[in-house]
Design brief:
Layout lengths: L5 H6 L4 H15 L8 H14 L5 H12 L4 H15 L1 H14 L16 E2 L7 E2 L2 E7 L5 E6 L4 E2 L2 E4 L3 E8 L1 E5 L5 E3 L4 E4 L5 E5 L5 E7 L6 E4 L5 H5 L4
Antiparallel strand pairs: 1-3, 2-5, 3-4, 4-12, 6-13, 7-10, 7-12, 8-9, 8-11
Length: about 240
C-alpha cells in the first residue's frame, strides 16, 4: 500500500502525535498486515464502517477509491450499499451513492478500458463460446500470450489443455473460473489462475460485467486443446446469486 502522509500533511504542526498514529500506525502497521486480511477486505470493512457511522466526507470518497484500486468492482460496491441500506438505514445508502458515483466515474465497464486494448472479435473460436469475445495477440514466439475480453455473460465451453497448461492473469472486470466437479471461483483484477494440463475447466465473464484476462500458454511439445460441451445455462445463472 502507498505510504500515507495525510496526517502529517494536515496536522503535523498541530497534532504531530495524532499524525504519526494515523500515518505510521493505522495505515503503516495495521493496513500492512495483509497476511491477516487483504487490502481489498480492509477497504470494504472501512467503507462499511464509515457509512454505518454516517460519515460522508472526503474520507469516504478516499476509502471508496482505495477499495476500487484494491479490486472492489463498481457492481460489488453498489451491492454493498444496497445491503447496507437494510441494516444501517436507507438515508445512509442514499447519501453514499453520489460518492460511489464520483469514486468510480472512470470505471466505465467498457471493453476498451482493458489494459492492452480490445483487439478483434474472436471469430475463429466463436463456436466454442457463449456470447461475444475479443482477442488480441500479445506474443506468439516461444509462448502464446493473448489478451482475451468477454462481454457480460460470455464464457467459453468446457475444455482441456493437453501436455501444456495455461496461466490466466486477470486485468479487468469480474469473471469466473471453474474446474470440473469443483466450485466456481470468482475472479477480480490481480487474480492469477494456473491451469494444469488435462484439467477440464472453463472461464468467462460474470453476468453483469465485462471481463478481461491475459492467457499464457505454457510451452510444451505436442500441446493441444480439446473443446467440450458448453457450460450449462442454469448452473451459470446461479453463480452470481
Amino acid at each position: 500500500m502507498k505510504k500515507q502522509t495525510a496526517g502529517r500533511d494536515a496536522l503535523n504542526d498541530l497534532a504531530p502525535e495524532f499524525a504519526y498514529l494515523n500515518d505510521d500506525v493505522l495505515f503503516g502497521d495495521v493496513w500492512s498486515r495483509t497476511d491477516k486480511l487483504s487490502l481489498r477486505d480492509r477497504s470494504l470493512i472501512t467503507v462499511v464502517a464509515l457509512i454505518s457511522k454516517g460519515i460522508f466526507d472526503n474520507s469516504l470518497k478516499y476509502h471508496m477509491t482505495n477499495a476500487k484500486n484494491n479490486g472492489v468492482s463498481k457492481t460489488e460496491m453498489v451491492e454493498v450499499l444496497t445491503q447496507l441500506a437494510f441494516y444501517v438505514g436507507w438515508p445512509n445508502a442514499w447519501a453514499a451513492f453520489p460518492i460511489l458515483r464520483e469514486a468510480y466515474k472512470e470505471d466505465t465497464s467498457l471493453p476498451s478500458d482493458s489494459l492492452f486494448g480490445l483487439g478483434e472479435e474472436n471469430k475463429a473460436f466463436e463456436k466454442y463460446f457463449v456470447g461475444k469475445s475479443y482477442l488480441k495477440e500479445l506474443n506468439t514466439k516461444e509462448a502464446g500470450i493473448y489478451n482475451v475480453t468477454f462481454e457480460p455473460g460470455c464464457r467459453n465451453n468446457w475444455h482441456i489443455h493437453h501436455v501444456g497448461g495455461q496461466i490466466l492473469l486477470v486485468t479487468d472486470g469480474e469473471g469466473w473460473y471453474q474446474e470440473f466437479s469443483k466450485p466456481a471461483r470468482k475472479l477480480h483484477p490481480g487474480d492469477v489462475v494456473y491451469i494444469s494440463p488435462e484439467v477440464k475447466h472453463w472461464h468467462g465473464a460474470s453476468k453483469d460485467s465485462w471481463f478481461t484476462h491475459i492467457a499464457i500458454s505454457v510451452p510444451a511439445k505436442g500441446a493441444s486443446t480439446s473443446w467440450c460441451e458448453k457450460v450449462d445455462d442454469d448452473e451459470y445463472s446461479k453463480l452470481d446469486k
